[in-house]
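Data deposition worksheet. Section B asks for the primary sequence of the deposited chain exactly as it was used as input, without tags or linkers unless they were present during the calculation. Section C holds the resulting structure in token form. Section D is free text for depositor observations; keep each observation to a single sentence. Incomplete worksheets are returned to the depositor.
Section A, Depositor: J.P.
Section B:
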Amino acid sequence: MSEPLKAISPLDGRYSKSTENLSDYFSEHALIRYRTKVEIEYLIALSIEKDIQELQPFSEKDKEKLRKIYTSFNIDDSKRVKAIEVATNHDVKAVEYFIREKLEKINKKRIFPWIHFALTSEDINNLSYSLMWQEAFKKEFLPKLNEVIKKLKTISKQFANTPMLSLTHGQSATPTTFGKEIKVFIHRLNRQSVQMKNHTLLGKFSGATGTWAAHSIAYPTVNWLRFTRKFVSSLGLEPNLITTQIEPHDSVVESYHSIIRSNNILTDLCRDIWSYVSRGILKQKKIPGEVGSSTMPHKINPIQFENAEGNLGLATAIFDHLSNKLPISRMQRDLTDSTTLRNQGVAMGYSYLAYKNILKGLARITVDKTKMKTELDSHWEVLAEAIQTILRKTGSDNAYEQLKNMTQGTEITQSTIVEFVKLLHIPKEEKDKLITLTPQEYIGIAPKLIDIK
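Section C:
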């Protein structure tokens, strides 16, 4: 890897340690390796098609040798492909010539004609990009998202019964618990996670304009639809049999959108946590040696959540462009998707980086229960809802108006509430209930919501 301090992208520079796992899926080296895999697996699949008599099935030993070309693929192999590309000025053709070189070394020159047989570059590329995305998604992205969900579950259960003041429209509102508020994010993220796990990516393998024309002119008796279904499925993708030269990218865009939704949910989380820190009801653990401000020594800034919010925004902006651009291609093919698609790893990289920062931030927050109680004790007006609801229950037809007149624009204390309730014409048991009620207790069934699946 080149010097990180000279990198243009922060993902390859400042944040390279946090995102290095993704280079196995989204680097140029990774793309070349995936292309090589698809070419080799296609070659093997052709050999076992009974109506293609000119290419005999490979022995198990030969299959192992062929697959070793991509299973042992290393950075020197990538450099060789790039050197060939300088001459060919075509990246996929360079892979074909590289495979020829490898085959010649194992005395398989006779099968040169079958490499990339009847294919267009997009047949290789669309499968390679889908495999890159799918494997990174399953092995890196989803586990990191689930790690965030797991951490949130721990926090939610820990503070299931910890009452806190709600703010709706920035104003004091019906109390909740910190655990229940975190549960809201868990519930939302779980829904996205399930959809992500069940999503499938499509792949095409049908030649220059999606008609299998070259295939059919060479071997009209081969059932190319069945061949394609079997081959694409063997790679772990769902065959798309109705396309132009390109796979239209709709399925991968669906995957992008699922991440956009998760990123928006986590942006919401970051802003709420930031606000709770600002209010003082959340504290952050000190880290020895860490500087919060270059001039204000007392500060511990919520930088992990701010960093995450910024990176989530970048990721979503890139995903949004990819989602809008990729499904659109002039007639049967243009190349605007080629350069654009190379950036899907960048979008995942910013998301992945954000999720890591959220985990770091969540690991250092602590709940200040004393501050939460003090805040609630300063807002007895939140019990107005409870009082007017009891008044409605006991037949009052102007309950809301009574409480509005008492509470709007006025500082309300415990004694204000008690004196007001004492004057109400309601049953004694209801009156006693309201007189002894405190903001800390007015949390409904919030603690029980933690266990809802």
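Section D:
The two ends are 45 Å apart (CA to CA).
The domain at 379-449 is CATH 1.10.40.30 (Ribonucleotide Reductase Protein R1; domain 1).
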